[in-house]
Write a structure and sequence with these properties.
The structure is a single chain. The chain is of the alpha+beta class. Helix content is 29%, strand content 27%. The chain is built from nine helices and 19 strands. The strands form three sheets. Strands 1, 2, 9, 10, 11, 12, 18 and 19 form an eight-stranded mixed beta sheet that branches. The chain has an eight-stranded mixed beta sheet with strand order 6-7-5-14-15-16-13-17, sandwiched between helices. The longest helix has 25 residues. The two termini are 30 Å apart. Bound molecules: flavin-adenine dinucleotide. Flavin-adenine dinucleotide binds next to helix 2, strand 13, strand 17 and helix 9.
C-alpha cells in the first residue's frame, strides 16, 4: 500500500498520538515469524517491541491452511539432487524440529490441532512416480514414510505417500496466542514506513510510533520490498486462494492434510466435516502475482470444478468462506535470513513461499540466534544468493 504525503504528515485531526519508544530490539511484522521472534527475543531478556501494519495474524499466517508438514515444496529426492545428501538431511531434520516446535507452542497455548500425519496423492502416473522416488530417498536416509501405489479414495489418483507425525492446526489462534504470550510490546495498526541506521542506532518510523533501538528484524515476508530495495529481486508477492464449506454430519472422508498436483492443491476436512481447499494458483499464474487481497471468480470456479470431479459428495456442501492471502516467494523456495547490506543492525527473516508453518518458527529461532550471538543461520542464509 502506498502512502500519500498528506496521510503521512497530517496532524489534523490528530486521532492518534505519535509515540517515541526506545527498545532493545524492534520486530516489524506480526505473523508466525514475528510472533516466534518476539517470543524468543523477549524470552532472552531483551526489551522487544513489535510493529504490525494491520493486526497480528492479518497476513498469510492467519489465512493459510494450517498444514504443518515436515516437508519442503520440492520432493525430497530433488532436494538431495539440488543440495547434496548431507544438506538435504540437515534440512529435513530442521523441518522435523520445526514441527516439534509448533506442536509445543500448540500444547502450551491450547491451540487446537490434530496429528494424524499427512498424505500426498499423485495426480497422474508421472506424479505417482515422483512420489515413489521421494519415498525411496526418504527411506534411504532413515526418515519414516509410507508409499503405496494404491489410491485410498479410488478417485483416479496414482500413488500415495503418507508421512506420520505431520499435523494441522488453527493458524490464527497460534499466531495471536503466541504473540500475546511473548512478553513483547505489540503495536498494531502501525505500519513501518521508513527504516534507517545511523552509527549503532536503528530508527523505524511507523504510523503510530517512532522506535529507536539497537537492532531490528524484518518479518515482513511478501511486503519486504516496500521497506527496502534489497528485496525487490529476491522476494516476490504471490497470492493463494482458498474456500471452506459448511459443516457436515457425514463421516469424514479426508482427515489429514492432503496435497497433490505438485503442491498446487491442498485440502482436508475439519472434525466438524467442513472441507477446505486451496489450489490452481498454477492455472492463473499472472493473475495471482501481486498484493490484491481478493478472490477471483475464475480461480474459485476452477477449484469447485476440480472438487466436483474428484469428490462429488463434498462438492454438495455449501461454501461459507472464500479468502486470499499473499505469500513471499523466493527463487529456490527457501527462506532468506540475513542483514541488510547497508544497515547491518537490521536483520530479516522473510520469503517463506508456501510453507511458513513448515519452517517459519525454526527460521525465527535461527534468526534470533543470529541477532543475539551472531550464529550463522546455515542453509537459509541469504548469502547463498551471492
Ligand atoms: C492461502 C494460503 C495457504 C497457505 N497454506 C499453508 C499451509 O498450509 N502450510 C504452510 O506451511 N504454509 C502455508 N501458507 C504459507 C504461510 O502462510 C506463510 O509462509 C507464512 O504465514 C509466512 O509467515 P510470515 O510471518 O513470514 O508472514 P505474514 O504472516 O504475511 O506476516 C507478515 C506481517 O508483516 C506485516 N507487515 C508487512 N509490512 C509491514 C510494515 N511495513 N510495517 C508493519 N508491518 C508490516 C504484515 O501486515 C503481516 O501481518 C499458505 C499461505 C496462504 C496465503
Amino acid at each position: 500500500m502506498t502512502v500519500s504525503l498528506w496521510q503521512d504528515t497530517a496532524s489534523w485531526p490528530s486521532e492518534i498520538e505519535h509515540e517515541r519508544i526506545v527498545a532493545d530490539i524492534a520486530i516489524v511484522g506480526g505473523g508466525i515469524v514475528g510472533a516466534t521472534l518476539a517470543t524468543l527475543l523477549a524470552g532472552a531478556g531483551r526489551d522487544v517491541v513489535v510493529l504490525e501494519s494491520r493486526f497480528v495474524g492479518s497476513g498469510a499466517s492467519g489465512r493459510n491452511a494450517g498444514h504443518c508438514i515436515a516437508g519442503l515444496r520440492t520432493n525430497y529426492h530433488h532436494t538431495v539432487e539440488r543440495l547434496g545428501r548431507d544438506r538435504a538431511k540437515e534440512l529435513r531434520q530442521q523441518m522435523l524440529e520445526n514441527r516439534e516446535m509448533v506442536r509445543g507452542f500448540c500444547d502450551r497455548l491450547n491451540v487446537p490441532y490434530e496429528q494424524k500425519g499427512s498424505q500426498y496423492l499423485g495426480i497422474d502416473a508421472a506424479e505417482g512416480a515422483e512420489l515413489r522416488a521421494c519415498a525411496e530417498a526418504f527411506l534411504a536416509d532413515g526418515f519414516e514414510v509410507e508409499f503405496s501405489e494404491q489410491d485410498p479414495y479410488d478417485r483416479g489418483f496414482i500413488g500415495h505417500l503418507y508421512q506420520p507425525g505431520d499435523f494441522w492446526l488453527q493458524p490464527w489462534l497460534l499466531v495471536t496466542r503466541l504473540m500475546a504470550s511473548s512478553g513483547a510490546r505489540v503495536l498494531e495498526n502501525c505500519e513501518v514506513r521508513t527504516i534507517e541506521q545511523s552509527a549503532d542506532t536503528v530508527t523505524l518510523r511507523g504510523r503510530r510510533a517512532t522506535i529507536e533501538c539497537k537492532q531490528a528484524v524484518l518479518a515482513t515476508n511478501a511486503y519486504s520490498r516496500h521497506l527496502h530495495e534489497y528485496f525487490r529481486d529476491k522476494v516476490f508477492p504471490k497470492r493463494a486462494q482458498m474456500y471452506a464449506t459448511e459443516t457436515s454430519s457425514e463421516p469424514r472422508l479426508i482427515e489429514m492434510p492432503t496435497g497433490c498436483d505438485d503442491g498446487n492443491a491442498y485440502f482436508r476436512q475439519l472434525p466438524d466435516g467442513r472441507f477446505l481447499i486451496g489450489c490452481h494458483r498454477d492455472r492463473f499464474v499472472d493473475e495471482e502475482i501481486g498484493y490484491g487481497d481478493e478472490t477471483t471468480p475464475q480461480l474459485q470456479a476452477s477449484m469447485q470444478t476440480w472438487v466436483a470431479e474428484r469428490f462429488p459428495e463434498i462438492a454438495k456442501l455449501a461454501i461459507t468462506h472464500r479468502w486470499a492471502g499473499i505469500m513471499g516467494f523466493t527463487a529456490d523456495a527457501m527462506p532468506l535470513i540475513g542483514r541488510l547490506p547497508d544497515m547491518p543492525n537490521i536483520a530479516f527473516a522473510v520469503g517463506f513461499t508456501g510453507a511458513g508453518m513448515s519452517y517459519g518458527p525454526l527460521a525465527a529461532r535461527l534468526t534470533a540466534e543470529y541477532v543475539l550471538d551472531g550464529t550463522h543461520p546455515g542453509l537459509f542464509h541469504a548469502d547463498r544468493l551471492g
